[in-house]
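Tokenised fold entry reproduced for absentees:

. . .
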Amino acid sequence: MDNEAKSVVLMNNLGKSDGVPVPDKYSLEPVAAEFKSLLGKDVLFLKDCVGPEVENACANPAAGIVILLENLRFHVEKEGKRNNASGNKVKAEPAKIDAS
């Protein structure tokens, strides 16, 4: 921001959620509050890291905004594969990875 960036979009991965959302344990929402405290400015937290809401927020953000996306590891596309509830291995669809 000090170097005239219009906005900043932050993303991260936390923990090992194996492509399954575990918001109580691995959400980045508390990190947004900490960033707000450290930066002294509001941080827009988005409850996902992909999809139309994220694309719209990041496509033309307000000047000076900081956006934090939810944990990337909540999606199997980040991990490559995971086991489903039945214990069967589920792989990320290559088309979804390429589109990311």
